[in-house]
Every structure is written in C-alpha cells, then in structure tokens.
Amino acid sequence: MIDAHQHFWRLDRGDYGWLTPALQPIYRDYLPSALEPLLKRAGIRASILVQAAPTAAETRFLLELAHANDFIAGVVGWADFEAPDVAATIDALAADPKLLGLRPMIQDIVDAEWMLGDALAPAYEAMIDNNLVFDALVLPKHLPRLRELIDRHPELRVVLDHGAKPPLLGGDLRAWKREISTLARETGIACKLSGLVTEAGSADPAVLREAVDHLLAEFGPARLMWGSDWPVCELVCSYATWRATSETLLAQLDPHKRALIFSDTARKTYGI
After folding, report:
1. What are phi and psi for residue 248, nearest 5 degrees?
2. Which residues make beta-bridge pairs with 35?
3. What is the pTM of this model?
4. Tens digit of each residue's pLDDT (9 = 90 or more) over 90-143
5. What residues have CB less than 8 Å from 226, skipping those under 6 apart?
6. C-alpha to C-alpha distance for 127 and 192, rounded to whole angstroms
7. Could you tell me which CATH number the domain at 2-270 has?
8. Does position 190 have pLDDT exceeding 80, yes or no?
9. Do 61 and 32 contact (CB within 8 A), yes or no?
10. Where are the domains of the chain?
11. How far from 270 is each of 59, 70, 220, 252, CA to CA, in Å?
12. Contact at 8 Å (CB) between 90 and 130?
C-alpha cells in the first residue's frame, strides 16, 4: 500500500505562510519519526511526500528527508513557474531521482486564470521533458481552466489533489459534480482520494459518501489513488480514523479495484 499524499514540516524553517497558530492542533513540527509508526500500523509501505511551502528551499528540505527515510518513495516539490530560468531550475531538480512532480499552490493564487498564463509554458514543457507529474492543487472554480491547460499540454501528466476540494460543508455538490464529470470524461487525469475530511469537517462515512461515490464513478479505480493528507487530516481526525473511514467507503469494491486505489494507481502515475 502507498499513501499518495502526506506532508512534513518544521516550523522554524519559516516559509509556511498558511500555517499559523490558529491552526491548532497541527501548528507544530511533523517529521518522519512521527509518521513511520502510523504507516506501519496501517499496513502502508511507502508514501509520497508533498510540498507545503512555495519555496525551493522547502523542496530541497523534503528531498533530504526522502533520501534519509526509505519509506518516502518520492517528493512532489515546488518551483517558481514564473521565473525566467524556470526550465533550468526544473531540469536541476529533476536530476534528483526522488523528485516525482511539482505543485504550484494554485488554490492560494488570487488570479483564477493564473495556470493559463503564457509565461508558464516553459515550466510545463520542462516538466514534460523531465517526465514529472503536475499535482493540481485547485478548487472547483479552477476545473474549467485545468481542462484547458491539459488540452494545451496533452503530454503533461496531471493528478487532481483532494478531488478539487468539493464544498462538503455547504452541502450543494451539483456544480462540483458537473465539473468533475466533464474533467474525467474529457481528460486522462488521475485523482487523489484525499483531503475530504478537512473539507467536510467530519470523518463520518455518511457525510463523505456522496463525494467519494461520485469520484469513484467518474474516474474509476484505475484513476484514483488514496492519500492521507496527514498531518492536515488531524484538524478533523487521526490517520487511523481516515484509513478506517476509507475502508468503509470502498468496502463494496473487489480486491483488485481496492489494490488500484490503495497502491497501483499511484505506482503507475508517479513511476514508483
């Protein structure tokens, strides 16, 4: 089994602009020694470590952790897509075999059209040249732009983080469902089954069922991968609780389909 989406951070590094004391209980250091026993208890052999700060320094920090801890299969890092030398930067980062992909923090960018800017084309082309995965950290409003981006760069391998964060607290999923259906139908994008407890404020399977069933119906197990979004999930529930909730939500699937979601889709998508 693979956890396709988890984070580490060390507060004294100082580049996590979103991580403030208001976000208790996760406003503290989270490092490999805290996650490894949780993975073992959950029967998970490897994880994909994802960036949490928009800095090259954090990406280097994560790569160091990946090289020092065998259970980290690889890193989805960050690069400044708007920098004039972004192609050279991506080439240099990709020389590290532990780098699997890159993730601009699109959800925090005010301009909803940002990902379609002409100045970003060299970054996408460099990712394609280096066979890196583009992790799309987007909100439902970004999904039409994401379809256009994929149309412009059909060779770019793309993974949708957290199912595009459906508005589970608001309860009206109709627009999100419509955009997810179109995205799944018109592109070959894969999707992470992660982050939903945070959007819902609950780990109750009954609260999450509608969104999970829609993702499963539209993407299918071969394009879905499970991730914990730990330690962000601890705002709502423990690692073990989300793992158990996921088992309940996917209990109707046969072992082959479950293996796709809990392991094989991540292996294939990220080249693990």
Report:
1. -65, -45
2. none
3. 0.97
4. 999 999 999 999 999 999 999 999 999 999 999 999 999 999 999 999 999 999
5. 1, 2, 3, 4, 192, 193, 194, 246, 261, 262, 266
6. 20
7. 3.20.20.140
8. yes
9. no
10. 2-270
11. 17, 16, 18, 26
12. yes
Q: Which amino acid is it at 211?
A: A
Match 């990946």 to its residue by tokens.
66
The Cα–Cα gap between 22 and 52 comes to: 17
Contact 140, 164 (CB under 8 A): yes
Show Cβ contacts of residue 167 under 8 Å, excluding neighbours closer than 6 positions.
140, 173, 176, 199
